[in-house]
Amino acid sequence: MTQPTDIGGEHLRAALFLAASNVPVLPLRPGKVPFGNCRRCTDNVCGGRPNMKTPGPCTCPAPCHGWAAATTDPNVLNSPTWRCTWREAAGVAYHPGDAGLTVVDLDNADAITWARVSLPATRTVPTTRGEHWLYLGTMQSANAVRPGVDIKSLMAYVRWLGPGTGRLTELPDVARTLIVKEPAPARPVAIVASAPAAGGQCPHRTPTYLDRGIAMAERSITGAREAVHATVYRTFLAVLSTHGRCGCLTDTHIAQLFTAAQAKGETPRHCTDAWTNARTTLGL
User: Tens digits of per-residue pLDDT, 210-233?
Assistant: First the structure.
């Protein structure tokens, strides 16, 4: 492994250690803000937004700023371009999502108390004000998901404060649901309550209409780019509001919807819960 050759010292050694463990890293300047990683980008004069999701437009090396600049390449970390940066660095950050991790950032004692009650035990790292709880698995990052709690995973960076203590455990569903807004209450829906027509056909819709509706529902779930859980719930609600009492939905139709949801990362339990909640909302 390439070794640090100048007074980049402690931070560079930590960065190289993490990189060797496939954890992408980057230097932090005072204030826990990433550097512009070349002289042209000093103080981010190129227009990069170091603490946001979008890197700057420069290519030196690409990408230049923020979480997107994190790397495991020791030649980049110890290159002449970055060596001056390490001299001024106040710390090391890493991109948890690219390392297959999610960090639940607990900012105060109340947040830690909540976590001890609500989350499974896992590896913990002390911070200045609270603790980082590390889990195996990735998810969308979000700030202020509840008082004193941030989620850092994909498209985010976290300051390296040491390896922590305890065994890493799998990311729990309760953490994933923290970023999902509760669906708005469903508006009353007029539901035809008559029995299925002869031959099992829906009395108020043609079989073709049903097939197209299921296909549209699948596309709605597949096309979701965020809030997948809420999208799945709303889609299930829409399908059930139209065909929930007429007897035309079959296990095959339901399996199609569940398959689409699971392809977007929903667990079988998530699907079952969303389906059950939609039925309950509609009084089915």
Answer: 777 788 888 888 887 767 778 888
Q: Is the peptide bond before 74 cis (omega within 30 degrees of 0)?
A: no
What are residue 95's DSSP bridge partners? none
Cα separations in angstroms, 61 against 56, 71, 76, 107, 159 = 11, 11, 9, 33, 21
Torsion angle defined by CA atoms of residues 102, 53, 58 and 8, in that order, rounded to the nearest 10 degrees = -40
Q: Which residues contact 3 (CB under 8 A, 6 or more apart)?
A: 16, 78
The H-or-E segment that residue 10 falls in is: helix 9-20
Cα-based distances in Å from 256 to 13, 128, 205, 216, 273: 51, 48, 19, 11, 16
pTM (global) more than 0.70: no
239 membership: H or E segment, kind and range:
helix 228-243
* Gap between the Cα atoms of 152 and 150, Å rounded: 6
Phi and psi (nearest 5°) for 27? -80, 150
- C-beta of residue 69 within 8 angstroms of C-beta of residue 63: yes
Specify the residue for token string 């970390």.
77
Q: Tokens 């890197």 — which residue?
A: 55
